Amino acid sequence: MSERITATGMVLMSTPVGDYDKRIVLLTRDMGRITCFARGARRQNSALLAGTNPFAFGEFEMFVGRDSYTIVKANIKEYFRELTIDPDLASYGFYFLEIANYYTRENLDGSDMLKLIYVSIKALLSEKLDFILVRRIFELKAMQLNGEYPVIKDDEPYLEATKYAFKYVTSSKIERLFTFTVLPDVLEEMGDIIDSFMDKHIDRKFNSLSLLHLQIDQDNV
Predict the structure, then answer these.
(1) pLDDT by residue for the chain (221 residues), tens digit each?
(2) Is-contact 49 156, C-beta < 8 A?
(3) Euclidean distance between the first and final Cα of the chain, in Å?
(4) Is residue 113 a contact partner of residue 98, using CB atoms and an 8 Å limit?
(5) Which of 78, 87, 24, 88 is CA-nearest to residue 55?
(6) Residue 109: which region, alpha, beta or left (left: phi > 0; alpha: psi -120 to 50)?
(7) Radius of gyration of the chain, Cα coordinates, nearest whole angstrom
(8) Domains in the chain and their CATH numbers?
(9) Beta carbons within 10 angstroms of residue 94's beta carbon
């Protein structure tokens, strides 16, 4: 009989398989990013219908297979449904998920990245911070968790507030990240530094980022 386990995690991706099944990419605390299948999850009466959608966060019971896992039960604590009704929120949210999918691997501790996604989405929903600031903080911390990120030296010709923001993000616990705001010129400079670094060190383009830029352009019309 297959081993049955329970894992805390968030759905990063969900794609249809066959007539009624789903293929799930799940980021978990202890097992990192894993691939799962949810049989019959696309049926309207399935208990797994909503719990296997992107952003669903909670506990997932599954059987361990040779090459993948099969989800049999989902106890969802957060669906983050607000992300499905607001195009701006959805654009940022899916970008965060795609970044997490890029950086994480199976059998590597995913707890910090999982926590980062969770608190970043909460920051988006709080409406207290600029969406772009939340994005920049998320990007910088995600890169730091991966071990390669832009480091600003004291003698570099950047605004002092920009230097402070970078030091704060890279030295703070994840729970304390979203506790500050910056002026527009600082936010712009943060973005320039992060974009330049990502262009040089990340070997792929994120589809969700293209959609995010399109959404921003539409909002500015």
Answers:
(1) 478 999 999 999 999 999 999 999 999 999 999 999 999 999 999 999 999 999 999 999 999 987 789 999 999 999 999 988 888 889 999 999 999 999 999 989 999 999 999 999 999 999 789 999 999 999 999 999 999 999 999 899 999 999 999 999 999 999 999 999 999 999 999 999 999 999 999 988 887 777 776 666 555 54
(2) no
(3) 59
(4) no
(5) 78
(6) beta
(7) 18
(8) 4-78 (2.40.50.140), 82-220 (1.20.1440)
(9) 21
Q: Could you tell me the pTM of the whole model? A: 0.92
CA distances from residue 197 to 151, 194, 202 in whole angstroms, order as listed:
10, 5, 8
Residue 62 and residue 205: Cα distance in Å, rounded?
A: 32
Cα(33)–Cα(17) distance, rounded to whole angstroms?
19
- Which letter does DSSP use for residue 43 in this model? S
Q: Which residues pair with 6 in a beta bridge?
A: 61
The pair of three-digit structure tokens given for residue 155, joined into one six-digit string: 């003698």
Q: Where are the alpha helices (DSSP H) in the chain?
A: 82-85, 87-103, 111-126, 131-146, 160-171, 184-201, 207-220
Q: Which two tokens stand for residue 162?
A: 């920009």
Angle at 179 between CA 176 and CA 185, to 5 degrees: 130
Phi (first) and psi of residue 6, to 5 degrees = -125, 130
Is the CB of residue 56 less than 8 Å from the CB of residue 74? Answer: yes
Separation CA 9–CA 26 (nearest Å): 6
